[in-house]
Backbone:
């Protein structure tokens, strides 16, 4: 089965290609397998599971993109091994609308 994912080119040009791909993947996983906690929707996965889904990437590349998303306030991460990821939809919309401060990658 072929894996496909939509990519927001405008968002990728603002936050980085890898970050936009990972963000889209996390948003999709939250829709497919959500966990509600603290008033937010999360998905629970290991970094290895994320890397397996984004099979062209190494675990290091996943970590780097994830850290940049956290630095930009686009995702929250909880847990040590099987982590929980939540996307900050308000921040994503803010960046998409152009009301953001660019962070150097």
Residues:
């Amino acid at each position: 089965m072929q894996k496909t994912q939509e990519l927001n080119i405008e968002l990728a040009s603002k936050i980085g290609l890898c970050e936009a791909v990972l963000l889209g993947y996390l948003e999709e996983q939250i829709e497919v397998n959500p966990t509600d906690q603290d008033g937010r929707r999360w998905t629970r996965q290991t970094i290895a599971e994320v890397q397996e889904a984004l099979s062209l990437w190494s675990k290091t590349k996943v970590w780097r993109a994830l850290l940049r998303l956290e630095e930009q306030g686009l995702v929250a991460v909880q847990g040590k091994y099987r982590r929980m990821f939540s996307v900050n939809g308000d921040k994503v919309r803010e960046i998409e609308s152009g009301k953001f401060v660019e962070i150097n990658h």
Q: What stands out?
A: The chain has five helices and four strands.
